[in-house]
Amino acid sequence: MAAQDPAFHLHAGDLCYADSSGLGLPADTYDPRTWDQFLAQTEPISASVPWMASLGNHDMEALYSPNGYGGQLARWDFPDNGPVRSEGVYSFIYGNVGVISLDPNDVSFEIPANYGYTGGAQTKWLDNRLKWLRDQDDVDFIVVFFHHCAYSTTTAHASEGGVRNQWVPLFDKYGVDLVINGHNHIYERADVLKGGKSTKTPIGATVHPATDGTTYVTAGAAGRSLYAFAVPDSYAGHVNDVDEVPSFVWASGAVKVAENVTWSRVRYTGYSFLAVDVKPATPGRTTTLTLRAVTEAGAEIDRVVIAREAGGRSRGHLDDSAA
Length: 323
Prior knowledge:
Elements: E1 9-12, H1 33-46, E2 51-54, H2 70-75, E3 90-94, E4 97-101, H3 121-134, E5 141-145, E6 159-160, H4 161-166, H5 168-173, E7 178-181, E8 187-190, E9 192-194, E10 197-199, E11 206-207, E12 215-219, E13 245-251, E14 255-261, E15 264-268, E16 272-279, E17 286-295, E18 300-309
Keywords: Signal
GO molecular function: acid phosphatase activity
InterPro entries: Calcineurin-like_PHP (IPR004843), Metallo-depent_PP-like (IPR029052), PAPs-like (IPR039331)
């Protein structure tokens, strides 16, 4: 990671696994010494590179309040521009990119310990913040990162229906460019999606989100035990396209609903991370956001270019009557 010389690092939840059970319950197994190990491991990079984190299910340490987030609040200084009583929910702008961190524990059907704890405030804030970012002439791209996956096909957690129900319509409405998730310990990229419909997006493709839709990536293979897919891996130099992938989505009541999906385009079950490079441009010219999946050995296994007109008014933002 250090070799990429990043301006900042995004960590999409499950920071250290001090709560190894991950259910957000008082009976969860909890070892606070894990925090010391994690901070020592990450210090060589985090000492010089801002480490921007969101919260996952293993971050609900029920020993603490509010909502089990005391461990994070004692060790992290999150931006405070999110809604009241919504820890780890914030936004910032870097260059021509707006970045939003969300807490999916608030909407998760799979692990409902904190379900609805913001009383809808987080989703309302997200709507307003996306609109505000899209109205900024100097913000071309919007990246949203959070833990539970909108679109993933692992045999472990797969996709979160609460995210699809509450947030994906807003991503469509405001033309979000890139969504980065964790939770599933693999790398997976979906075909670009808009309105629940996918458009095939092979490795090396250029995406125009104003018309094509949002790119969804699961980047959860940075260090914990790895998960599996029901079909073979498919990545650069090892492409195995399949017509359908059997999977499931979590519904209310922690119920698994089976689905066969056509959007799983890139799958990799080794350790990896996501690198994102942005090339700004003067208004009216094309600005690009390039995402690359990189293995622990430094090999590139996926690449997609997201392109927009810099300072453009056509952002894929639907008005309320069309949403």
